[in-house]
Amino acid sequence: MEASAGLVAGSHNRNELVVIHGHEEPKAVKNLSGQVCEICGDRVGVTVGGELFVACNECGFPVCRPCYEYERREGTQLCPQCKTRYKRLKGSPRVEGDEDEEDIDDIEHEFNIDHQKKNTTIAEEMLHGKMSYGRGPEDEEISHYPPLALPSLRSSRPVSGELPVSNNAYGDQMNGSTLHKRVHPYSFSDEPGSDGWNDKKEMGWKERMEEWKMQRGNLGCERDDYDDPNTNNADEARQPLSRKVAIASSKVNPYRMVIVARLLVLAIFLRYRILNPVHDAIGLWLTSIICEIWFAFSWILDQFPKWFPIDRETYLERLSLRYEREGEPNMLDPVDIFVSTVDPMKEPPLVTANTVLSILAMDYPVDKTSCYVSDDGASMCTFEALSETADFARKWVPFCKKFFIEPRAPEMYFSEKVDYLKDKVQPTFVKERRAMKREYEEFKVRINAMVAKATKVPPGGWIMQDGTPWPGNNTKDHPGMIQVFLGQSGGLDAEGHELPRLVYVSREKRPGFQHHKKAGAMNALVRVSGVLTNAPFMLNLDCDHYINNSKAVREAMCFLMDPQTGKKVCYVQFPQRFDGIDRHDRYANRNTVFFDINMKGLDGIQGPVYVGTGCVFRRQALYGYKPPKDPKRPKMISFDCCPCFGRRKRLANYSKHGTNGQEVTQGIEDDKELLMFQMNFEKKFGQSSIFTTSTLMVDGGVPPSSSPASLLKEAIHVISCGYEDKTEWGTELGWIYGSITEDILTGFKMHCRGWRSIYCNPERAAFKGSAPINLSDRLNQVLRWALGSVEIFFSHHSPVFYGYKDGKLKWLERFAYINTTVYPFTSIPLLAYCTLPAICLLTGKFIMPEISTLASLVFIALFLSIFATGILELRWSGVSIEEWWRNEQFWVIGGISAHLFAVVQGLLKIIAGIDTNFTVTSKASDDEDFSELYTFKWTTLLIPPTTILIINMVGVVAGISDAINSGYQSWGPLFGKIFFAFWVIVHLYPFLKGLMGKQNRTPTIVIIWSILLASIFSLLWVRIDPFIMKTKGPDTKKCGINC
Questions:
Q1: Which residues does the annotation mark as catalytic?
Q2: What is the pTM of this model?
Q3: What is residue 87's predicted lDDT score, i.e. its pLDDT?
């Protein structure tokens, strides 16, 4: 990819393609003449000895090694410049026409196939601990991956410190020639019935093991080998890259016991409530019973997925030892990073720029990092801001890596109120920091000027610097646009080092097409990245979520690249952390109860749910493939000498000669399957041949024969608005359509296929973002989440009904997914339950009869179990009691407002087809700290909580006044009613503070108590009425009661 190629805009359907040059000023680029491949544009690279790779010794025409190998294997084997035949270089495989050479690197290893197979088989048996006899996998064990053998599209990469095991799960399953073969711990020459087999069969197990060790050269090693640091590093590299950390049993076991006890007490409580109706208030009693049964059901769905909470640890040093050996090529897998934005007015370009800068400066190999920014609003302001960001990155990235800056988003780094000189020893740091801060302030001024200019659209539309009209002037009808700002030939920083790739993408939009909002934009990025870079892993971030921990991607790689468990991991989810939240977190924006309790519990089952950002995906999992299956333990075969260890089998099936007829039939069937697969492959992934080819490259990379121009043209094709028609995009592939919360659906589909996910919570937060701290914005955000859950519940992907066929989704994981879709419906019983106290106070009735001593013990046990469960959860999770209480308060606030509206809107959409517009949450912030917290914005979501709050306060006043008038006998039942009313008021207290706005002098709590106490004292004053003379009544002792 050439960074100086200009803006590429076009439409595949209209057969249009335009390249706009000269938009940005040319940057100073280091002269790379002679070091860039003239065929693909990549770096030529060096040999093992560190010298420049030279393919042709006659003319020295610059060609990289992949192009050289491809030309020798598939092409004319001639140099493109001098037409001389390429000679075989050391380490290259032989092709037809090579001269015989006495070279150990191919003579003894390339053609010794049996020896390689023997070593591979022995290594596999040693790793899995299965030194037994048996058969290979049956027919049904074949993976669901496409049965294609494409050796030219695969890369087998040996890793230092590992045994030479063929650990490519996808490739091994795609190779049909390895099926139905015997698996032995000995060489293939020792088949049953041969002399070698009979000799070894007579030997004991220990003797056979000693002989095998002698053959492998593992005996007789010197003691000094263990003291060799290289040997120690190799041993360390073989260790797991991560491990589970179980919660202490002293914390978890009491927690589980309390859950069971609470379940029993809850059953006794519901039985008592049902068998003891209140006859004079049967309507109130029945309503309360229905609400309490639903609350119990909802609690079970929420509680039991937290039964197996775990923590995890990662070992970054082992990751480096395994994949970043000194003097060897870096073996870490590439990563494509996606950043999505829509409206530059609601998502300021400066916020997006900080996110992009933190990505470009993260601690990961630059040649394996690519950043794609999706501008779904086709804004020229975002485009120009990204161009400025690419220019500033040339100075910011080397500064971060030189001084190990954290965090690497400049706005957050320069605004931190910490000692920035701590742990800094370089004398030039202060001087360079001041200069960089000045550069960043100038960068901010330029970005702010762009935003101010973008507020008023010119009558003729936006014009680029070279006079060309901006292709995205009509945001609903524009071609696809791609601009490579930083690439291999134009991505050098101020010190001459290479920078990661930075690509601007705006997908094509035309009237009459369904674009599927954010999910469609993410799928377009998946296809673009698959064409241009095709990294095996992808990280997606919202535009306001910057990388707070520069090693975050390495943390994820400790799980995804682990050779033992990584192949079954579909994604690694990080918790969401936020900046700019008030100290008391009034509206529970941090959501720590969900991220530090619920997600840890799910990690012990099948993995956490996908929450929309801060997630590293495996590309093959997004392509709809199923995880590789574990090899089954070989079945035991009994021989004449050991008839008791298994059923007798005829050895004729395993003879040397085999049955040629069966092999021919199997080959014909394989050809038919291959043809059928090729016919249906484009129906699944689309009509792009290059992208279709990239989906088969499990280890990533692009075909070496592809030129940058052809790749960009194909990238425009895959983001065309009609590309997904009649394909499986959005239904089985990529981000799943059908809900505005596409994240829940996408993760749910992967878990149903058998994948598992990982929850990674490093000590330093991986990512940080901004949250809407204003009450109205927060409620609108919760409304969008709840509406997406309602849409999923009524769709065919509902976890209540979907995913039972394969049986890959665990039951507790299904409970969690059901809970994520039914929790908005709790708003209906919650609204009724919050209204009952006021109705009881106003009518003088109650939902419970007079309780006995035994029944009161049940009530006390229920409340104690509720509090004990919460306290023990806080104990093992580390969540503070204040955060837990804020979560409880906002559960009530959101339940009777946003969740209620979500249910109504969801039903209107299902029944009447009335759709709801998606509103982007504003990421803008004012200069004053927390000034947005006190801003009052009217919305209809405020009506239900305000009504509930007022009627409960009126009910308290009316109940007290009634008790004053009725006498002392009415104070007993009053306390129960007032308790429930105060329970509602206390939970709605943060909502009331939001309604009151910012109080400069008088706190809100003082105003509330003043109103309540003034009302009560007024009623007492009227009842006592001390200024009116009391009339003395008749003397009952003299004239009787009826006087």
A1: 376, 743
A2: 0.75
A3: 83
